[in-house]
Design a protein that fits this description.
Its EC number is 4.1.1.33. The structure is a single chain. This protein has eight helices and 14 strands. By secondary structure, the protein is of the alpha+beta class. A hairpin with a 5-residue loop joins strand 5 and strand 6. The longest helix is centred in the middle third of the chain and has 21 residues.
């Protein structure tokens, strides 16, 4: 029997975001980003070698539990990712590989990041590497999803670690235990977003405000790093919300314009601002999509959620927290 390798890789969301690429083919960003790795929003990947096969077998396990051949962009993305991984790692000529997510796919909650990170780590482990290999973020980035480079590490992660080397690896700047923040994810639309992140990156530099954004990011990144180091929630909230608004301003002023926000997005953002005015340590950010990450300290999670759960335009709440990163599993998808 062929050995099966199963791993999970978590989603992440960006506190400092990258938007726009210096090299789209290599998924190299125009600026460093900084994210928080989640604990419960996971992609699961199982892979085994097929020594006698003539092609890879790529499968997707749907939320209903049905295992079926992957199609469309998912199939093409995994095929290309496996080809690049083989050029870097060698490994089996053909594999059977299956993936699944336990949270909405393609809705702006970084399912591509966790999914491609899981594929990279599963294939790398099958090829004799370890999950904590220092090159793991580079392998994940080969997928074309830059955010996948951050999902191979737990805690708070900067990618690339060196702002002068945009092709460099990611690095954890603080562990999950350093600051156990909670993330309440307001799902206002679980459908796949109408403009992909890759297309959004392509449009970014058409915004007349894009150059100004890039000039402001180094100082903002330093502020967020310092806020994390000091566990200073007020400083974190100010920078993170400014960053989220600015990124979506760039998207809205690009050509063609990209509008990810929905009325539910604004409803959540307004409620969070009210709660902070009322004295709660809470803030919000929105990645490339309509859904909102509401960030708070773990001891205020229940209080914050009680004030949010009745919002009329939220379809679903996902209760998550900062997590420790990928891990290997004994439970397989096939």
């Amino acid at each position: 029997m062929n050995e099966k390798i199963s791993v999970t890789a978590p989603s992440n969301f960006a506190l400092i975001k990258y938007w726009g690429m210096s090299d789209r083919h290599q998924a190299l960003p125009n600026n460093p980003s900084l994210s928080m790795t989640l604990s419960h929003c996971l992609s699961h990947c199982t892979v085994e070698a097929l020594p006698t096969a003539q092609a890879d077998e790529i499968l997707w396990k749907s939320p209903t539990g049905r295992l079926a051949p992957a199609t469309g962009d998912m199939l093409n993305g995994i095929e290309q990712h496996l080809a690049r991984l083989r050029r870097q790692l060698g490994g089996p000529t053909h594999v059977r590989i299956a993936t699944s997510n336990n949270f909405p796919t393609g809705a702006g909650i970084a399912s591509s990041a966790s999914g491609f990170a899981a594929v990279a780590l599963g294939f790398a482990r099958l090829s004799g590497r370890t999950l904590d290999d220092p090159h793991a973020s580079l392998w994940a980035r080969l997928s074309g999803s830059g955010s996948a480079a951050r999902s191979v590490l737990g805690g708070f992660v900067q990618w690339p670690a060196d702002a002068t080397d945009l092709a460099g690896p990611a690095r954890r700047i603080a562990t999950a235990a350093h600051w156990p923040l909670a993330d309440l994810i307001a799902v206002v639309d679980s459908a796949p977003k109408h403009v992909s992140s890759r297309e959004g990156h392509r449009r970014a530099n058409t915004s007349p405000h894009y150059a100004t954004r890039l000039s402001l990011l180094p100082e903002r990144l330093a502020k967020v790093r310092q806020a994390i180091a000091r566990r200073d929630f007020s400083a974190l909230a100010e920078a993170v919300e400014q960053e989220a608004i600015e990124l979506h301003m760039i998207a809205m002023t690009s050509t063609p314009a990209t509008f990810y926000w929905l009325p539910g997005t604004l409803q959540v953002l307004e409620r969070v601002r009210q709660l902070r005015c009322d004295g709660l340590n809470v803030c919000a950010t929105v990645d490339a999509g309509p859904n909102v990450h509401v960030l708070c300290e773990s001891d205020q999670r229940s209080t914050v959620f009680a004030q949010l759960r009745g919002l009329s335009q939220v379809q679903e709440w996902i209760i998550d927290a900062v997590g420790d990163g990928p891990r290997r599993l004994d439970q397989h998808l096939f």
